[in-house]
């Protein structure tokens, strides 16, 4: 098996099956996959099967099923392209299918979702807003993805917050999802974060006085950077598996991750990408965090050493809680029941 295929499976298998891929489909897709160049096509092929189920359901006006099938297809297409930067044309075709399936699914999800576009630096940041049942205005959580995740992957995370009466706003930031083609990865997230919070707070069904920010992986770095920049504008912050300084992790990162970061940061070489990664640092910002901060981390994370979480805990300026899961992998996707419900409860309590 191609080392890149085995690396992707070893690092991210629990993430796939936790975030919407059935176990049988995961085994079917990866079981006969030997060459990384076939990754995107293999995932896209099975994604198209779920898309066809969704299109048939739409045609038959079976809208609940349509939303379920199409949102699942969007996740599969997303995983087809998530780090497939060797063939950008093929990657972008899969991305277009992921977006199309998600947008067609949104009206039929429970609760439904709505696309929101934010003008930003000559381009757009695009998010999905979902509101819980009942009258507003609602407290809300801004959800930030990582290097290779995007809003298409966040359905199960959104549902955990929505079940507790919190609205969710999953947004692609610079270097992510729909913004990855025009806006490179950046270390300073004050401007993107403020633009996202402005857009969220301007929604008539959202209570601007009760906002939180959550992030996973690089999003687990972006979320506390946003919290540091906006002060008491956010009432709670969750950092899941985020680095304190991403450059310090460079030498232990999988080659797939390094190459993806290079492409999405606009770097011309691995060395330049490493220098940019080193600008993703909490140094000088951690002490400015005044909102309550929950840090969730897996001690067996093979991408970001657990000591990064401890350093953020030591330097953060406000109330901090560290939830260290001893057997957790990167993002603790292998232990989702041990942190996702608790995280949602923790945020809901602080937004009451």
Describe the overall structure.
The chain is α/β, with parallel strands linked by helices and 352 residues long. It is 44% helix and 16% strand. The chain contains 12 helices and 8 strands. It has an 8-stranded mixed β-sheet with strand order 1-2-4-3-5-6-7-8, sandwiched between helices. Helix 3 packs antiparallel against helix 4 (63-81) and helix 9 packs across helix 10. It is globular. It starts with a helix and ends with a helix. The model has no long low-confidence stretch (mean pLDDT 97).
Summarize the structure.
By secondary structure, the chain is of the alpha/beta class. The chain has helices at 3-18, 23-31, 39-59, 63-81, 88-105, 155-162, 190-201, 219-230, 255-265, 270-277, 307-315, 340-350, and strands spanning 113-120, 123-130, 138-144, 167-171, 206-216, 236-240, 293-298, 320-325. The chain has an eight-stranded mixed β-sheet, sandwiched between helices.
Write the SSE topology.
Blueprint: H1 3-18, H2 23-31, H3 39-59, H4 63-81, H5 88-105, E1 113-120, E2 123-130, E3 138-144, H6 155-162, E4 167-171, H7 190-201, E5 206-216, H8 219-230, E6 236-240, H9 255-265, H10 270-277, E7 293-298, H11 307-315, E8 320-325, H12 340-350
Parallel strand pairs: 3-4, 3-5, 5-6, 6-7, 7-8
Antiparallel strand pairs: 1-2, 2-4
Helix pairs in contact: 3-4, 3-5, 4-5, 7-8, 9-10
Structural class, please?
alpha/beta
- In terms of DSSP E residues, the strand content is 15-25%
Average pLDDT confidence is 97
Largest sheet composition:
8 strands, mixed
Helix content: 40-55%
Q: Shape from CA axes?
A: globular
Number of helical segments?
A: 12
Number of strands: 8
How far the N terminus sits from the C terminus, by CA atoms, comes to: 51 Å
**Major sheet: order of its strands?**
1-2-4-3-5-6-7-8
Low-confidence stretches: none
Helix-strand pattern: HHHHHEEEHEHEHEHHEHEH
Question: Radius of gyration over alpha carbons?
Answer: 19 Å
């Amino acid at each position: 098996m191609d080392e890149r295929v085995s690396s992707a499976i070893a690092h991210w298998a629990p993430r796939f099956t936790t975030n919407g891929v059935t176990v049988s489909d995961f085994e079917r897709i990866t079981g006969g996959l030997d060459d990384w160049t076939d990754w995107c096509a293999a995932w896209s092929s099975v994604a198209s099967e779920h898309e066809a189920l969704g299109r048939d359901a739409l045609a038959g006006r079976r809208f609940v099923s349509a939303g379920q099938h199409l949102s699942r297809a969007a996740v599969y297409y997303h995983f087809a392209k998530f780090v497939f930067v060797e063939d950008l044309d093929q990657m972008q075709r899969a991305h277009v299918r992921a977006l199309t399936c998600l947008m067609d699914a949104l009206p039929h999800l429970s609760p439904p979702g709505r696309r929101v576009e934010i003008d930003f630096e000559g381009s757009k940041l695009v998010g999905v807003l979902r509101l819980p049942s009942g009258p507003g205005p609602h407290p809300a959580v801004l959800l930030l993805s990582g290097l290779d995740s995007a809003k298409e992957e966040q359905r199960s995370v959104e549902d955990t917050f929505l079940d507790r009466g919190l609205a969710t706003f999953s947004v692609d930031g610079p270097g992510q999802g729909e913004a990855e083609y025009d806006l490179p990865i950046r270390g300073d997230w004050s401007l993107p974060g403020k633009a996202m919070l402005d857009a969220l707070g301007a929604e008539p069904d959202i209570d601007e006085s009760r906002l939180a920010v959550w992030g996973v992986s690089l999003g687990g770095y972006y979320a506390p950077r946003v919290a540091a920049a906006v002060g008491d504008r956010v009432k709670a912050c969750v950092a899941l598996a985020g680095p304190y300084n991403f450059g310090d992790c460079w030498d232990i990162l999988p080659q797939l991750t390094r190459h993806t970061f290079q492409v999405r940061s606009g770097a011309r070489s691995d060395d330049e990408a490493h220098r940019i990664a080193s600008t993703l640092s909490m140094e000088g910002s951690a002490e400015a965090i005044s909102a309550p901060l929950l840090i969730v981390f897996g001690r067996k994370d093979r991408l970001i050493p657990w000591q990064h979480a401890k350093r953020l805990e030591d330097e953060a300026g406000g109330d901090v809680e560290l939830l260290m899961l001893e057997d957790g992998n990167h993002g603790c996707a292998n232990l989702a029941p041990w942190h996702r419900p608790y995280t949602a409860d923790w945020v809901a309590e602080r937004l009451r």
